[in-house]
Design goal:
The structure holds 2 protein chains of 2 kinds.
Chain A lengths: L3 E2 L4 E5 L4 E7 L6 E7 L6 E7 L4 E4 L2 E6 L4 E6 L8 E8 L5 E3 L3 E6 L1
Parallel strand pairs in A: 2-11
Antiparallel strand pairs in A: 1-3, 3-8, 4-5, 4-9, 6-7, 7-8, 9-10, 9-11
Chain B lengths: L3 E4 L2 E4 L5 E7 L5 E7 L5 E9 L2 E4 L6 E7 L2 E6 L8 E8 L7 E3 L3 E5 L1
Parallel strand pairs in B: 2-11
Antiparallel strand pairs in B: 1-3, 3-8, 4-5, 4-9, 5-6, 7-8, 9-10, 9-11
The chains are: A mainly beta, B mainly beta.
Chain lengths: 111, 113
């Protein structure tokens, strides 16, 4: 039973446009949410996070939105750039600070 | 130089063999983790260690064991490898002051024939 779901395996976006990646979760006890980015042949790298007490966090071109009532979060990238092409993982912090991960969404930025 | 290194980067082995994957870090972090990633699935936690004397099972520890030789070293062993342990394995570290942020090694791709 997946507690963190990323229902879109892939997403293709035109360069310069907005990329929106979505993530749903089932456990209302999760208190922190994170997005990681992964390039081929590399490990995931931390991108941005949000506490469950907030509904928005922004860092440059990246903004994460949290809708607790819907148990949904999204990552917005504006404007999208070719270097943003990667796999994006959503993760939620559960008990004993363990992270529960989604399956990832492959983002492709078209020139 | 990479902060978190994993050796080997690729490994092919046969069913029943014992293998060890190694992880070293220069970040000075106390906390270390081993994950596996399978196609279509997210990362799943195998074992984690909050310091040299503290080792804990994760979600999928069966068939695996670990050793925390020092603060900087955390090894994962497959005592008797089986084909469904074919996966991409990641080591990660974190700082208690930044619990939500984990720093990953480049991964080890393991194929069990």
């Amino acid at each position: 039973d997946q507690q963190v779901k990323q229902n879109s395996p892939s997403l293709s976006v035109q360069e310069g446009r907005i990329s929106i990646l979505n993530c749903d979760y089932t456990n209302s006890m999760f208190d922190y949410f994170l997005w990681y980015k992964k390039y081929p042949a590399e490990g995931p790298t931390f991108l941005i996070s949000i506490s469950s007490i907030k509904d928005k966090n922004e860092d440059g071109r990246f903004t994460v939105f949290l809708n607790k009532s819907a148990k949904h979060l999204s990552l917005h990238i504006v404007p999208s750039q070719p270097g943003d092409s990667a796999v994006y993982f959503c993760a939620a912090r559960g008990g004993n600070y363990q992270l529960i991960w989604g399956a990832g969404t492959k983002l492709i930025i078209k020139p | 130089d990479a902060d978190v290194t994993q050796t080997p980067r690729n490994r092919i082995t046969k069913t029943g063999k014992r293998i060890m994957l190694e992880c070293s870090q220069t970040k000075g972090h106390d906390r270390m983790y081993w994950y596996r990633q399978d196609p279509g699935l997210g990362l799943r936690l195998i074992y984690y260690s909050f310091d040299v004397k503290d080792i804990n099972k994760g979600e999928i520890s069966d068939g695996y064991s670990v050793s925390r030789q020092a603060q900087a070293k955390f090894s994962l062993s497959l005592e008797s490898a089986i084909p469904n342990q074919t996966a991409l394995y990641f080591c990660a570290t974190s700082d208690p002051g930044q619990r939500e942020t984990q720093y990953f090694g480049p991964g080890t791709r393991l194929l069990v024939l």
